[in-house]
Amino acid sequence: MPPARVAHPGLKSPEYYVPGLAADDVARRYGISPADIAKLGSAENPHGASPKARAAIGDALERLHLYPSWTAEPLREKIAEVYGYEPSQVVCGAGETEIISLVIRAFCPPGGRIQMPGPCFPIYHLFAETEGRVPVLVFEATDRPSMALDVDAYLAAVDDDTRIVFVTNPHSPSGTWLSESDVRRIIEAAPRALVVLDEAYVHYSATPGYIHLAREYDNAVVLRTFSKAYGLAGLRVGFGVASRPIIDALLAVKPTWNMGGLQIAGGIAALDDDDHVARTVATIAESRHHVARRFGELDRFRMVPHSRSNFFLVEIVDPDTDSNAVFNGLLERGVIVKDGAVSWRGLEDRFLRCDVNLPEKMDHLVDALRDLD
């Protein structure tokens, strides 16, 4: 029998995304009640899904036998109405992650360079490699004590061969925030590239974000998700806005029916659920302040400041331990976080990423860290 074949070297030994662990699995492994687990590794909404989205999904069950619009046109129309675009300037996907894959396929040829901060959301480099593109992680652009992006260093890395430049705001895994002037500098410094402004966590930033920039620049696309503030992570809904030529290219490479009827109905209704978003954002802001105060009780761990997201980095300042040991010690105490050395290329073994959740979950995290030997 002939050997199995793959399309290109990037698929011979692929690296896979490492999601946050499931609470039920940790509960079984350590004999802990699921109710006593603090799941702080997936940036999920502590208040669950948008009630309006849930109701709309229930109503849409009667139409499961019908094919949806192949472009998710009703959702595109709603997004355009909310954010001041034309429907032709919107693309929808099964989560923001699908749109990232479409952007890479449409705007970077095989072998092309895709720039991203190091460390960054792993999907950027994982998709680049499996699509046969070259990810360029610019570690020199990250200030290690604050984990904020050094914009000057990032600009210096852009060259004529750069096809795509990723900017995440707030950044993952640090939660740090870029000013509008700095985002504009990046877009204007890369006129030959497509600048992808990923605003997955923007609701937690206490700003409306910079979604308007896609109207001003023909080399920019702004991405958002329904997984976080709207609580629809399990539904898989995301979108991007950009100029018509960019959207036309993305529509050409996307799967024909990549959005089901339930996704479309849930997304439309969620955009009207301002109360759910406001409640979620208020909870995260309160808990972020709460956990920052509690970290003052710890000597071996430092909460990296200035997160504008629903997560933050914890630096391990004790040289006698590392992120893997702390990660596993927290699991034994019913706390799920993310091990920086496993989840982010180049973050190494001195950091954990922890969600901001309800205050009692934050107390569970800090108490568990204090309890570690």
Secondary structure layout:
Elements: H1 23-30, E1 38-39, H2 51-60, H3 73-83, E2 90-93, H4 96-107, E3 113-117, H5 122-130, E4 134-138, H6 151-157, E5 162-168, H7 180-189, E6 194-198, H8 213-216, E7 220-225, E8 238-241, H9 244-253, H10 261-270, H11 274-295, E9 301-303, E10 311-316, H12 323-332, E11 335-336, E12 338-339, H13 340-343, E13 351-355, H14 359-371
Provide a brief overview of the structure.
With 373 residues, the chain is of the alpha/beta class. Helices cover 38% and strands 15% of the residues.
Features:
single chain, 373 residues, alpha/beta, Aspartate Aminotransferase, domain 1, 14 helices
Structure description:
- With 373 residues, this protein is of the alpha/beta class.
- It folds into two domains: 9-48 and 275-371, Aspartate Aminotransferase, domain 1, CATH 3.90.1150.10; 53-272, Aspartate Aminotransferase, domain 2 (3-Layer(aba) Sandwich).
- The chain contains 14 helices and 13 strands.
- The protein has helices at residues 23-30, 51-60, 73-83, 96-107, 122-130, 151-157, 180-189, 213-216, 244-253, 261-270, 274-295, 323-332, 340-343, 359-371, and strands at 38-39, 90-93, 113-117, 134-138, 162-168, 194-198, 220-225, 238-241, 301-303, 311-316, 335-336, 338-339, 351-355.
- A seven-stranded mixed beta sheet has the order 2-8-7-6-5-3-4, with helices on both faces. A four-stranded antiparallel beta sheet has the order 9-10-13-12.
- α11 packs parallel to α14 (359-371).
- The longest helix is centred in the last third of the chain and has 22 residues, at 274-295.
- The radius of gyration is 21 Å and the shape is globular.
- The model has no long low-confidence stretch (mean pLDDT 95).
